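BUG-230 | component: ligand-complex export | severity: low

The export step for calcium ion jobs runs without errors, but we want the raw record kept on the ticket for reference. Input record follows.
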Amino acid sequence: MSQEATILLIEDEPEIRRFLRTTLPAHGFRLHEAATVHEGLSAAKAWNPDLILLDLGLPDLEGTEVIRQVREWTATPIIVLSARNQEQAKVEALDLGADDYVTKPFGVNELLARMRAALRHASRSADSPEPVFSLGDLMVDLGRRQVFVSGKETHLTPIEYKLLTALIRYAGRVMTHRQLLKEVWGPLHVEEGHYLRVYMRQLRNKLERNPAHPRYLVTELGVGYRLRTE
Ligand code: CA
């Protein structure tokens, strides 16, 4: 039996709180709730949760303030619950150190998948990724730096490989354009969105059966990319 993870929900909308109050404990999570940034910050310090679900539109302050303050003392995963058309706010939250987001209204399966990916990542040390990553017909041997599609070795350029391994490190979670540009090209190139578009297209052409409808390398509109894991 795995130990149940403690979740802190910082959200002021009663319907979402009611929904999560019934669903999360039913899936083996222990839930604490807060309705404002101030309550959320004291609850985070009091409970040291394994994961934080954070609404961005809170009554006292911007939800991003929680990310700013929590990231000063812990790397605990933060998933943002955001409204539709809040691309800018989502990107800001992710760049501040949130791990992922779901867009309201969200289904419980989508939320649970995001939570599992974030908790899995947190339980692994960031500098020791799984030696082999596999997903459908894609297999990446990170130790040998070899990539296989349907058992056939596929040659990637150094940049393509770097881009793929950055996404593998964040597998299942979204990465913003800025984060990817910084990881692959370095901090001086975070505005060069066209690099990313060009290399993502090349990578999809090599790895996806139908690059126009990618199964693995998914676009998160206005935000970034996600390597799907399930
Ligand atoms: Ca709200």
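Assignee comment: Attached the raw record above. The pocket of calcium ion is lined by residues 12-13, 55, 57-58 (CB under 6 Å).
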